[in-house]
Specification:
about 280 residues; alpha+beta; 8-stranded mixed sheet; 3-stranded antiparallel sheet; 4 helices; 15 strands; about 35% strand; extended; Lipoprotein
C-alpha cells in the first residue's frame, strides 16, 4: 500500500512538472508571436513612408527655385510688381516700402519659381475617348496666392478676366466679380487597348501631378468699376445712408509666368509622362 502511494505521488509530481513546462513553452511561443507581429507592423509603417525623394533637374528642382502653393501665401516682394499702395502697418512703413519698390521688384524677378499641381482637381484626367484611343490630361493654367494687400493670380497659359459664368455667386446679383480664367494645358495620352486604358485610369486618376517652372513676366490689373447707389433708411426718426460711390469688381492683379518647363508625371513624380518647354 505504501509503495502504491509513493508511485502515485511520483506520477502526480511528474504530471505537474510537465504541465508547468508546457505552460512556460506556450507563454514563450505567445511572446515570440507578439514580438513578430509588432515587428511586422513596424516594417509595414516604414514601407508606407516614401524613402526615395525624386531629384529633378532645373527648372523643376526645388532647391533652385521657390515653390508657390496654390491658394497659399505669395512670395515676398510680389506687391512691388504692381503700382499702387505699398504695404505697411502705418504711413511711415508704407512710405519706406514705396521707396524700395524698384529694388524689391528686381529681387523678385531675379528668382525662379515652381508651382506643384495634383490630381484630381488641378491635373484632370478626362474620360477615355475610345474612338480616338486616347486620354486627355488637362493641367490647370493658373493659381492664386495672397499677400497683405489681397489676391494675385499667376497664369502660364492664355488668360483673360471675365464673368465667372453660372454660379451661386451670380444668382440675384446686380453685378458679379470678375475672375481670371485661364485655358488648361492639354496633353493627349494614346492608349489603344481598352484593358490598358482601364488600368491607366484606375492607377492615375488620383495619382497624376504636374510641375510648372517659370520666371516672372508682365503684369496687369483688371478693373470693373460699378457705380453703386446709396441706400437710405430711417431709424428712430433719423435718416441713414449706406453705400454709394464707385466700387471695383475687377479680377484684380495678375502675373504672367514666363514658362521654363511643364512636367506631367505619375507614380509620385518618378515616372514622367510629358514635358513641354
Amino acid at each position: 500500500m505504501r509503495r502504491l502511494l509513493v508511485s502515485s505521488l511520483a506520477v502526480a509530481v511528474t504530471a505537474c512538472s510537465g504541465g508547468s513546462s508546457r505552460t512556460a513553452d506556450q507563454l514563450a511561443a505567445l511572446q515570440k508571436k507578439k514580438e513578430a507581429e509588432a515587428k511586422a507592423k513596424k516594417e509595414d509603417k516604414l514601407e508606407a513612408i516614401p524613402t526615395e525623394v525624386v531629384k529633378l533637374d532645373p527648372p523643376y528642382d526645388d532647391s533652385q527655385a521657390q515653390v508657390i502653393l496654390p491658394d497659399g501665401p505669395c512670395p515676398e516682394g510680389f506687391w512691388a510688381l504692381f503700382q499702387g499702395d505699398a504695404p505697411g502697418a502705418d504711413a511711415a512703413e508704407k512710405k519706406a516700402n514705396a521707396a524700395r519698390r524698384k529694388e524689391v521688384a528686381e529681387a523678385a524677378r531675379a528668382k525662379k519659381y515652381i508651382v506643384k499641381l495634383r490630381a484630381p482637381a488641378q491635373v484632370v484626367l478626362s474620360p477615355y475617348d475610345a474612338p480616338k484611343g486616347q486620354f486627355t490630361i488637362d493641367v490647370h493654367g493658373t493659381i492664386d496666392c495672397t499677400d497683405s494687400i489681397g489676391r494675385i493670380a499667376i497664369a502660364w497659359s492664355d488668360v483673360k478676366a471675365g464673368d465667372p459664368g453660372n454660379s451661386a455667386a451670380k444668382d440675384g446679383a446686380e453685378v458679379t466679380q470678375n475672375v481670371w480664367v485661364a485655358q488648361p494645358i492639354k496633353f493627349d495620352m494614346p492608349i489603344r487597348s481598352l484593358t490598358e486604358a482601364k488600368e491607366f485610369n484606375d492607377k492615375n486618376r488620383f495619382g497624376l501631378s504636374a510641375r510648372i517652372g517659370f520666371g516672372l513676366g508682365r503684369v496687369e490689373v483688371d478693373k470693373k468699376s460699378k457705380r453703386v447707389s446709396k441706400v437710405a433708411t430711417k431709424a428712430e426718426g433719423e435718416s441713414l445712408s449706406f453705400g454709394g460711390g464707385v466700387e471695383d469688381w475687377g479680377a484684380g492683379r495678375l502675373v504672367h509666368a514666363e514658362v521654363l518647363g511643364i512636367r506631367v508625371a505619375t507614380d509620385r513624380e518618378k515616372k514622367q509622362l510629358f514635358e513641354k518647354k
